[in-house]
Amino acid sequence: MSTPPFEPRCIDFADRVRDSFARQGAMKTLGASLGLVAPGAVDIELPWAAALTQQHGFLHAGMVSTALDSACGYAGFTLMTADAAVLTIEFKINLLAPAKGERFRMEGRVLKPGRTITVCEGRAFAIDGNQEKLVATMGCTLMAVTGRDSIQG
Fold first, then answer.
1. How far apart are CA 27 and CA 34, in angstroms?
2. How far from 123 is each of 13, 115, 117, 119, CA to CA, in Å?
3. Are β-strands 41-47 and 103-112 bridged in parallel, bridged antiparallel, or unpaired?
4. Can you give the pTM of this predicted structure?
5. pLDDT of 50-73, one tens digit each?
């Protein structure tokens, strides 16, 4: 998925994303790691794990949704100001195929950044060897949160 060129509003956007990601218990639970971190684009990678599957052995749709939501959220976060935190306010997921693979890559890409509201899209890929299969897409709307001590980057 290509990414339009965006200018980050914060010079240390990549460090902010990595620091925030490291604090996310949900991503630790999934065994997820950051891949690409660029202005308007973040990839999250995770291995297949039996504890994350549904009854047929596919990665559970809830796990796909969780990782895609974070990929989109962090893609938007790369373009927010240094005093902003990010929260998802809406998403829709399309599950296109069973999430069957050795590992998975979730891509979050900003479509339209804004001062308060940012719109992103996400794609989830199942990877087996050299083969990648698109298994889900997401539309995601984010909010930049400022001025709240309880919600920080």
1. 10
2. 22, 24, 20, 14
3. antiparallel
4. 0.94
5. 999 999 999 999 999 999 999 999
